[in-house]
Amino acid sequence: MNLNESVLNSKSTSISNESKKKLNLIDPISNVKGIGEESVKLLEKLSIYTVWDLITYFPKRFFDFKINNKVIDDSDQNQLLLLKVVNKEYKGRNGSILTIFCQDFENNFIELLCFNRNFYEQYAIPGSNIYAFGKFKRKMYSSHFISSSFKIISPKLADEFDFFPNYRLTKGLSTFILARFIKSALFQYKEILHEILPVSLIEKYKFPPFYEIIYTLHFPKDLELFEKARKIYAYYEFFIYMVKISLFKKKYKGKVEPRNIISGKLQKEFIEKLPFVLTEDQLKAIDELNLEYNGNYLINTLIHGDVGSGKTIVSFSFLLNYIEAGYQAAFMAPTEILAKQHYNNFLALCPQIKSSFLSSSLRKSEKEKIYRELESGKINVLFGTHSIITDNVNFKNLKVAIIDEQQQFGVNQRIKLRQKGKDVDLLVLSATPIPRTVYLTLYGDLNIITIKHLPKNRKQVKTYFLYENESNRLVELIEKELSIGNTGFFVYPVIEEDNELELKSAKEMFEKIKKLFNKYKVELIHGQMKDDQIDEIMNDFKEKKFQILVSTTIIAVGIDIPHSTFIVIEEAKRFGLSTLHQLRGRVGRNDKPSICVLTCPKSISDIARQRVSKLCETTDGFEIAEFDLKLRGPGEVFGTKQSGEINFKLADFVKDHNLFKYALEDAKQIIEKDPFLQQEESFNLKNYLREIENVTDIFLLSG
C-alpha cells in the first residue's frame, strides 16, 4: 500500500465543546438511539458494552449483492446466494420443519430446511427471489443441495446496502438490526469520533478523517475502498500497540536497587528433593534467571517452552530466591482451574512455605483473611487469577510476579500486577507455540528464555485422524485404553447443541458417551459450571474416581492429569493448530504410551485438512508454530479470538508486514520526541490510551 495515497475523499469534521461534554466513546450502548434493554443483552453476548465496542465491531468479510453466485458443495464456507423459490413443504410433528425448495441462477436445486423457524414462511412464496446466506452441501446420492445452517436475508438489507456484511452474530440479533445500530451510533457520535494519531502522522500519510475510515469499514461503496480503509485501520492498530510497548519498556527497564543477597539454599534443596531430574534446558533457564536476580536491572523475562516442557517447575525454583530473601511473590494464571492446580502443586513440593490461593469464588471471610495476611507479610506466595490485581489486594513486600499463559493477559494487566509493589520483577510463561521471530517482534520488552526439550521419560503421543463415519475404529482405540486401566478426555467445541452451527456439543455427547462406554464412569465439565463444582470433578479425576472426562476447551491450558493416556478431539476442524496442540498436551505426561484422536466430517476445507495432517506428523510445538504461521499468517494466529495481549481486529502481520514496519518506526520516533505524550499533538492519542485502552499507570512518570 502507498501510505501517501489519500484513500477516501472527505472533509474534516468539527468537534463542538458541548458535544464533547455530553458524549463519550465509552458511553454504554444503551445511550445509542434505537438500542433498548433487550438489544443491550444481545449485544453484551458479543462483548459489546460501549459505543466504541459497537463501532469497531467489524464484519469478517463482505458479499456483493450484485453478484449471482453459483452454489458450491462446501459445508465449511459461507456463501451468499440469490435464489428463486419454487415450492415449500411442511414435515415433522405439527409441521415444525419447513422445507423451502429453490433454484440458483444455473438451475441447481437447493433445499432450505427450517427447524422451528417458521417465521421464514413469509419468504417462501413460489416465484419470488430471496437471498440465503450459509453453508450448503450436496445431498447424498443426489444432484440437489441442502442446508440447515443458513439465514434468509431480509430484502431490506439488499435495498439499503451495496454489500452484505458478514458479522459474527448471536441468536435473536440479525445482520440488518446490528448494521442499523452501528449506523445509528456512527451518526450520533460522529462529532466526537476525532483523530487518534498525532497530526504529524496524519499529514505525513494524508490519512482521511477517522470517522470516514470507520464508516467505510462497515458500509463501503466498493470493496477496493474497504481494503484501503482496512489497511489504514491496521496501521492504527500496529501504531497504538507499539506505542504501548514503548511506554511499557521505558517504565520497566533500567537499574534498580540491588536485591537482598541470598545463599540460594532454598532453591538448591528444592531441586534436590524433586522426584525427577530436571532437563538440561530447565537447568540452563534456572541459571540464567539466577544471574538476572543477582544483577542490578529490573527483570522482564519470558520463558517460552513447549507443552509439558517444565516451565512451571523452573518458575517455582526462581521464586524461592525471593522467599529466601524475605520478599513476597505472586503467581497469576488465566483460569481458576489452572491457578488452583499450580497452588496445589507448590503446596505439595514446598509445604514449609506459607502460600495461599485467592479466587472470586471464595467466601468473603476467607478473602478478608487472605488480605490481612498478605498485608502483614504472613503469606509468602499468593496464587490466583485476575483477582490478584483487584484493589483489595495489598502486599507487604511484593518483589516478583509470575504470569502463566501470558498471552491471555494484556500490557495493562502486567502493569496492574507490578503496581502491587516497588520495582517488581516479572517472569511470564507461555506454552502457546509461537515462532521466536514473532515473539521478538511483539514482546520486544521481554528477555526470552526457551525450553525446547521435554523430560526424557516422556513418550511421543501418537496422533490419529478419523472421519466421523469411522466410529467403530474410535471405540476400538478408546476401549483398548480403558481396558488396561487408563483414563482420558473427550473434547467438544461447544457446550450445547446449536442447529445453526451443526456441531457436536459437550452436553449432547456426554449422554451418548455414557451409553457407549457403559462399563466406565463418565463426568462432564464446561465453562458454565460453578468453580467449586469443576474443582470437585477435577480432584475426583486426579484420584481416578472415574475414567472419562467430557469437556470443552476449558481443559486446554495447563491441566495436568498424569495418568491420562488418551484424548479424543471431535469436530477438530473447528480448532486452530495452537489449540489442538495444547489439547493434545493434556496427555503424554507420564512414561506410558498415549494417543490423541482427531475426528472430522468428510467434507472439510483444505486448510483444516492440512492442520490435522501436520498434527499427525509431529509433536514439536515450535515446528507446528512455524507451519501455522506459513499456513494462516500471524494475523490469524493473533486474531480476534485472542483475548489478551494481541487483539487486533483487522491488522494482519503477513498481509500488512510493511505497515507494521512503518508503525514500529513511527511509534519509536513519537516516544523519543515526546516520551510522556505531553505535547499538544499527542493529546488525542493520550486520551485514547487512557479512555479506550484503559492505560493509566504509564503516565505516572509524566508528573
Topology overview:
Blueprint: H1 17-22, H2 37-45, H3 51-55, E1 61-64, E2 74-91, E3 97-103, E4 109-115, E5 129-138, E6 145-153, H4 155-160, E7 163-166, H5 175-188, H6 199-205, H7 210-218, H8 223-251, H9 265-273, H10 280-293, E8 300-305, H11 311-324, E9 328-332, H12 336-349, E10 355-358, H13 364-376, E11 381-384, E12 398-403, H14 411-418, E13 425-430, H15 436-442, E14 447-451, E15 461-467, H16 471-483, E16 487-491, H17 506-516, E17 522-525, H18 531-542, E18 548-551, E19 564-569, H19 577-584, E20 594-600, H20 606-617, H21 621-632, H22 634-637, H23 657-673, H24 683-691
Helix pairs in contact: 5-7, 7-8, 8-23, 9-11, 10-11, 20-21
CATH homologous superfamily identity of the domain at 265-451: P-loop containing nucleotide triphosphate hydrolases
**Spatial arrangement of strands, main beta sheet:** 10-11-9-12-13-8-14
Q: What fraction, in percent, of the residue positions are helical?
A: 25-40%
What is the strand tally?
20
Descriptive terms for the model:
Rossmann fold, single chain, OB fold (Dihydrolipoamide Acetyltransferase, E2P), 6-stranded parallel sheet, disordered C terminus, alpha/beta, disordered N terminus, 7-stranded parallel sheet, 18% strand, 703 residues, 24 helices, 20 strands
